[in-house]
C-alpha cells in the first residue's frame, strides 16, 4: 500500500515532456540539424561598423529634428519677448504658438523627412550582408 502511494506521488510530480525528436514513418529518430551546419563562415560585426551605423543614425536624427526644434525655439523666444513687453504671463499662448509652428514645419518638410528616413532604412537593410 505504501509502495503504491509512493509510486502515485512520483507520477504526480513527474513532468511529461514532449519528445524533442519525433519518429519518422520508418521508426527512426530524426537527426538534429543546426543552422550553423549550412553556413560556411560565421562573421561578427566589427566595432567600426557599429560606430559608423550609430554615427549615421545620430546624424539623421539631428538632421530631422533640427528644423522642428529651431522653429519651436524661435517662436517661443518671440512670444516670450512679446509677453514680457505687454506684461502678460499666459502659458497657453506660448504653447499654442509653438505647437502651431511645429505643425507647420511638419507639413512643409514632412515629405522630405520621411524620404530621408526611407533612404536611411533602405541603406541600413541593404548593408546587413556587408556587416
Automatic annotation (TrEMBL):
InterPro entries: Bac_export_3. Keywords: Cell membrane, Cell projection, Cilium, Flagellum, Membrane, Transmembrane, Transmembrane helix. The keyword Transmembrane helix applies. It is a multi-pass membrane protein. The chain crosses the membrane at residues 60-86, 92-112. It is found in: Cell membrane. GO terms for cellular component: plasma membrane. Belongs to the FliQ/MopD/SpaQ family. This is Flagellar biosynthetic protein FliQ. It comes from Martelella alba.
Amino acid at each position: 500500500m505504501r509502495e503504491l502511494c509512493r509510486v502515485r506521488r512520483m507520477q504526480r510530480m513527474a513532468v511529461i515532456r514532449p519528445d524533442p525528436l519525433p519518429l519518422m514513418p520508418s521508426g527512426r529518430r530524426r537527426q538534429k540539424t543546426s543552422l550553423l551546419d549550412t553556413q560556411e563562415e560565421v562573421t561578427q560585426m566589427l566595432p567600426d561598423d557599429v560606430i559608423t551605423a550609430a554615427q549615421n543614425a545620430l546624424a539623421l536624427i539631428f538632421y530631422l529634428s533640427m528644423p522642428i526644434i529651431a522653429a519651436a525655439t524661435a517662436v517661443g523666444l518671440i512670444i516670450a519677448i512679446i509677453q514680457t513687453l505687454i506684461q502678460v504671463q499666459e502659458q497657453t499662448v506660448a504653447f499654442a504658438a509653438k505647437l502651431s509652428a511645429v505643425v507647420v514645419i511638419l507639413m512643409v518638410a514632412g515629405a522630405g523627412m520621411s524620404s530621408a528616413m526611407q533612404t536611411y532604412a533602405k541603406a541600413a537593410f541593404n548593408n546587413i550582408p556587408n556587416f
